[in-house]
Specification:
heterodimer; A: 251 residues; alpha/beta; Rossmann fold; six-stranded mixed beta sheet; four-stranded antiparallel beta sheet; 9 helices; 10 strands; globular; B: 312 residues; mainly alpha; two-stranded antiparallel ribbon; 14 helices; 2 strands
């Protein structure tokens, strides 16, 4: 029996009186590659914001590796081993691709209070960063300014930044958003590859049904403020409630 | 950085007062001006630690400049502390002020941060202005003693030495892991939190460091003028390093110092050409800023880099 990495217990949240979540509970187990789906406005990104400490839930608990993390700052939760990549790509645009990763590794490893040693002299950090860029196939652009990269490459850099934290749990918010079909396929391959190669638990949000059902071991459906269903892709696609609420519109 | 060019510039700067002194009274005046340029250059560089590298626009940086100036003035005048000790105290007292003010300011971001720095700056200004018995109010503090060894030339050299030391120190900070983190926060504050950076702490620490360097420049400025006055803390004084950073180049370390020197030089040339022309300074400054913002957003250093096609 795998142990839980993330436990969400009776989570509720409302904005200005409008309820977004009512009493949601689920568990993400170690080593899992699972996903959260839901129609537009179901609160998928809000769910990530609640888990990562960006928002504070009204009620309920969020346990990460058995530890209650509600009320902790995002940077504290990151230090516990949770990393996140963003739907709207979030990188450090005026820095080189390599520096984007270097600054993350330095934050993770050395702490960054050191004012005496030039960061460019940290050879170990640089070689690790370079290896990481290889794993997302960006090593050819290491010295380019990251802000001028094509959208798909920025998205992959975003994932590389998250991976540089060596997380136990990686949250991916629509990793293929805004990509061409060709790029989508590549990114899905990349995500699956990373998951297989690294000792990682992954939870991702996705719009594209083919992607979700293609790679998830477990799918969770957010709808009507609650968790409508949870199960394997086969179970979910056969669930009449889900078909009515969500898939029905698209099929 | 090109070491040969740096060495050449340094040799020129060291020999400058000896050449100028050959020109009698006018020469002495220009030594004084050059000293002020160096001090204002240090002040501008200190602000740029938070402005250019940290991405935090402070409208209240003169507060720390003024605190440094008044520290030197009060210690020397009221407690007869020797100059070098008083000067050493200036960055410390300014750092304490920056610790307190910064604690509040880094809680806000963007425009709100800027407005709060302005408010604190003006608050300090009003305290100094009103507290007549301690600070002399709008009379300021005059007649700060000058150690005999500090002739205009020697004082220039002392300021240059301190400037170079501060430059090396700031260069080390900017190129360190801490410096990289500060730039990281500037580039994307939200993302910084999600790579595990305690954004507020780093901004706070950077604010304190910048305040300390500003305090040192204020201390040097008080001794140069041999007085301290409320104007040193006024918000218009806070604008000077911002303009210098814009003109010189925010994304380089030495840019703001160059900007400060160039702006001062232009202003004095204008003044020397004809007394009445100084009235037009605001127009000239406005035109310069317009040109910089429109055509050279990276300032003079940016132009230099483009000409010699160096990347950042």
């Amino acid at each position: 029996m795998a142990k839980p990495v993330l436990e969400v217990v009776n989570l509720s949240k409302s904005f200005d009186g409008a309820q977004v979540f009512n009493d949601i509970s689920y568990t993400v187990e170690e080593g899992e590659l699972s996903s959260i789906i839901g129609p537009n406005g179901a609160g998928k990104t809000t769910m990530f914001n609640l888990i990562t400490g960006h928002l504070v839930p009204d009620r309920g608990e969020v346990l990460f590796m058995g530890q209650d993390i509600v009320g902790k700052q995002p940077f504290e939760i990151v230090k516990l081993g949770m990393a996140r990549a963003f739907q709207r790509t979030s990188i450090f645009p005026r820095m080189s691709v390599l520096e984007n990763v270097v600054t993350t590794i330095i934050t993770r490893e050395h702490g960054n209070l050191n004012m005496f040693k030039a960061f460019r002299k940290r050879d170990k950090v640089y070689s690790e960063a370079y290896e990481l860029l290889k794993s997302v196939e960006l090593e050819g652009m290491a010295e380019r300014q990251s802000g001028v990269l094509a959208h798909g490459n920025q998205k992959r850099l975003d994932i590389a930044i998250a991976l540089a934290l060596k997380p136990k749990l990686l949250l991916l918010d629509e990793p293929t958003a805004g990509m061409s079909p060709e790029e989508r396929k590549q990114t899905v391959e990349l995500v699956k590859n990373l998951w297989e190669r690294l000792d990682l638990t992954m939870l991702f949000i996705e719009h594209d049904m083919d992607i979700v059902f293609g790679i998830s071991q477990k799918v969770r459906v957010l709808c009507y403020k609650t968790l409508l269903a949870e199960g394997t892709p086969e179970q979910i696609s056969a669930n009449p409630q889900v078909i009515e609420a969500y898939l029905g519109e698209e099929v | 950085m090109n070491w040969i060019a740096a060495a050449l510039v340094l040799i020129l700067l060291v020999s400058l007062p000896f050449v100028l002194m050959k020109f009698g009274k006018i020469g002495e005046y220009w030594v004084w001006v050059s000293t002020e340029m160096i001090i204002m250059g240090l002040f501008a560089m200190s602000l740029n630690l938070i402005l250019g590298f940290g991405g935090m626009v402070s409208f209240g940086h003169a507060a720390f400049f003024g605190v440094g100036a008044y520290t030197v003035a009060l210690l020397m005048k009221k407690a007869s502390v020797p100059f070098y000790l008083a000067l050493a105290a200036a960055p410390l007292v300014a750092a304490i002020a920056a610790t307190i003010i910064g604690w509040f300011c880094v809680r806000l971001i963007g425009l709100y941060f800027s407005i709060l720095t302005l408010a604190f700056g003006q608050l300090l200004y009003m305290i100094v202005f009103q507290w007549y018995t301690f600070t002399g109010g709008d009379d300021g503090i005059h007649g700060i003693p000058r150690p005999e060894i500090l002739t205009p030339t020697n004082y220039y050299l002392l300021c240059l030495l301190i400037f170079v030391m501060c430059f090396m120190l700031m260069r080390m900070i900017v190129n360190s892991s801490f410096g990289l983190t500060i730039r990281t926060v500037r580039e994307n504050m939200e993302r910084s939190k999600f790579i595990g950076i305690n954004v507020r702490s780093y901004q706070w620490l950077n604010f304190i460091i910048a305040g300390a360097f500003a305090g040192l420049s204020g201390g040097l400025f008080a001794e140069l003028n041999r007085f301290a006055q409320t104007e040193f803390l006024h918000w218009s004084k806070s604008a000077e390093p911002i303009l210098a950073s814009l003109v010189g180049g925010m994304y380089s370390l030495v840019g703001p110092a160059i900007g400060a020197a160039v702006l001062m030089f232009l202003k004095i040339i204008l003044q020397q050409a004809h007394k009445a022309l100084i009235e037009t300074w605001a127009i000239v400054l406005g035109c310069i800023l317009l040109l910089v913002v429109l055509f050279a957003p990276s300032g003079l250093v940016g132009i230099y880099r483009k000409v010699f096609s160096k990347s950042e």
